[in-house]
Amino acid sequence: MADNAIPLERTLALIKPDSVDDSSEIERIIKTSGFAILARRRVNLSPEQVSDFYAEHYGKMFFTNLVSFMSAGPVVALVLAKENAIQDWRLLMGPTNPEEAKELYPDSVRALFGKDNTRNAVHGSDSRIASAREIGFFFPQIRNDQNEGGGANEYLEQYVTPTLNKSLAQLAKEKPKDPLQWLADHLEKNNPNKPDINLY
User: Fold this and answer.
1) What is the model's pTM?
2) Is the N or C terminus of the chain more exposed, i.e. has fewer CB atoms within 10 Å?
């Protein structure tokens, strides 16, 4: 059975400040294109955090504008998964320049939502190394081993199982009238994919 399993790959998708208002539509396009969204987080980044995230572009002419733009409003970070996720997400994003995207890939996210080279709606990891680093930047609690799904089992063991066990133990102690509703609320508050971190 394991021999027939399709190896899933993970990548980071970032909905930039110019397109956060369109995030539900962008997420719909992502899902209908065969991606699973494993984690989602809306966050405001400081200029220092943006500089760290885009460190490879430091010193380039557009760097200051990029930092200013990306720290001007909230972004939505998503962890996407599917076979060939990195390459497929980059294809779905379209070229960096939205005008080029409209001409060559009119159904791409940047063709539909991008405005210019900086305000081009979305970002995506360009390699497995970048994907691991970028997912870790936004979701430090997620282990991002890209090898044959081993990371998923470790993640379940490290975060999901302990959370579920604690919740069930608390449920047994409290014996609420509506145990299912209580458990749903408790898991929502203690979801390991939603760390209680407020970034600026």
Assistant:
1) 0.68
2) N
